[in-house]
């Protein structure tokens, strides 16, 4: 084994080496001083007599006394130093034990998360095929010789088809949620305006059916991959359309503000809004604030959870502001790129 050089500060941290030597030296100095006094019980009287008869000797004796007092002080300081080193050593040992415990818990948590993601991925993948067959055969059954089926049977088949389709959508959302962390963060810079344009084009039919007006302010370049940006905007636009108010035509406004080196992008709508007590859970997976049976809001509760995971993976954060019955504003922040803002556009999908 190659001997390792231990710095003096590490010796102090260990409570050994120089620390023990200092303590021993201090104890010896104190012991020698008091032993000297013990062997000369009349030393005080001798000091006084010498001081009266021989002033020069008195000065020399005073120096001896001063040296003895200094030795006593050094010994006391060494003892205090030794106690401090021992306390430091015990504290360092407790910290090392705590750090080892936290490391073990962190590793265990990582294994649990990896296992859960693996289970979700396998379950989603394995469920796709049987669900696809269920939908296909249910549709065949619904279209086969309807004249020979009564209304109840038709309703039953319709419920089977709707349930199978919903389950397929749920599994697809679960796969999207799990797959977020599989894409590494590259640090590339892309245009948020271009990503919004692509998202609007892909959702053109949805926006047109809802009669939605989409207003997009100039958007900057941000540190994010293009696929993630497009997915974020698609989920937020789809959420705004899905939870629109039946009392007014939907208007969606995409805006941006700057906060230091971060871009704060918001997607605002005039839809149903959210009750204050429900806002804290809006980005939880499978959470639907308006219930699963609402005709205007048949979402699965995975879209906003995917947005949260995407934004957090890119180093940003998400938030929501809302007035119940008046609309909501979903925002996210990402680090700005170097390019200026892109051009804005208003698009009315009537």
TrEMBL record:
Keywords, comma-separated and alphabetical: Coiled coil, Kinase, Membrane, Phosphoprotein, Transferase, Transmembrane, Transmembrane helix
EC number: 2.7.13.3
GO molecular function per UniProt: phosphorelay response regulator activity; phosphorelay sensor kinase activity; protein kinase activator activity
Protein's GO biological process: osmosensory signaling via phosphorelay pathway
All copies of domain Histidine kinase, residue ranges: 122-338
InterPro entries: BphY/WalK/GraS-like, HATPase_C_sf, HATPase_dom, His_kinase_dom, HisK_dim/P_dom, HisK_dim/P_sf, Sig_transdc_His_kin-like_C
Domain of life: Bacteria
Residues spanning the signal sequence: none
Gene3D superfamilies per the UniProt record, alphabetical: 1.10.287.130, Histidine kinase-like ATPase, C-terminal domain
Transmembrane region(s): 21-43, 63-87
Pfam family, one: HATPase_c
Annotated coiled-coil segments of the chain: 92-119
Catalysed reactions listed for this entry: ATP + protein L-histidine = ADP + protein N-phospho-L-histidine
Keyword Electron transport belongs to the record: no
CDD domains xrefs: HisKA
Protein name: histidine kinase
Organism field: Paramagnetospirillum caucaseum
């Amino acid at each position: 084994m190659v001997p390792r050089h231990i710095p003096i500060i590490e010796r102090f941290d260990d409570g050994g080496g120089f620390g023990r030597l200092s303590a021993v030296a201090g104890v010896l100095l104190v012991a020698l001083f008091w032993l000297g006094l013990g062997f000369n019980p009349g030393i005080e009287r001798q000091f006084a007599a010498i001081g009266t008869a021989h002033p020069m000797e008195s000065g020399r004796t005073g120096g001896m006394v001063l040296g003895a007092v200094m030795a006593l002080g050094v010994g006391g300081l060494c003892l205090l130093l030794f106690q401090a080193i021992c306390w430091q050593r015990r504290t360092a040992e407790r910290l090392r034990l705590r750090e080892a415990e936290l490391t073990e818990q962190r590793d265990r948590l990582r294994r649990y998360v990896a296992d859960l993601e693996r289970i979700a991925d396998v379950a989603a993948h394995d469920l796709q095929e049987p669900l696809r067959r269920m939908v296909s055969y249910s549709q065949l059954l619904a279209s086969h010789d309807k004249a020979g089926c009564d209304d109840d049977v038709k309703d039953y088949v319709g419920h089977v088809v709707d349930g199978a389709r919903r389950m397929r959508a749920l599994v697809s959302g679960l796969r999207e949620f799990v797959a977020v962390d599989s894409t590494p963060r590259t640090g590339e810079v892309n245009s948020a305006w271009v990503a919004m344009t692509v998202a609007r084009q892909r959702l053109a039919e949805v926006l047109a059916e809802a009669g939605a007006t989409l207003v997009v302010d100039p958007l900057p370049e941000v540190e994010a991959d293009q696929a993630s940006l497009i997915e974020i905007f698609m989920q937020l636009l789809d959420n705004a359309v899905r939870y629109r108010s039946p009392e007014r035509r939907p208007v969606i406004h995409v805006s941006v503000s700057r906060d230091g080196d971060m871009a704060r992008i918001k997607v605002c709508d005039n839809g149903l809004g959210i009750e204050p007590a429900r806002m804290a859970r809006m980005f939880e997976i499978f959470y639907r604030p308006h219930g699963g049976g609402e005709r205007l809001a048949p979402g699965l509760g995975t879209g906003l959870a995917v947005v949260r995971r995407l934004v957090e993976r890119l180093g940003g954060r998400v938030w929501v502001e809302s007035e119940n019955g008046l609309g909501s504003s979903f925002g996210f922040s990402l680090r700005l790129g170097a390019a200026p803002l892109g051009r804005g556009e208003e698009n009315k999908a009537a």
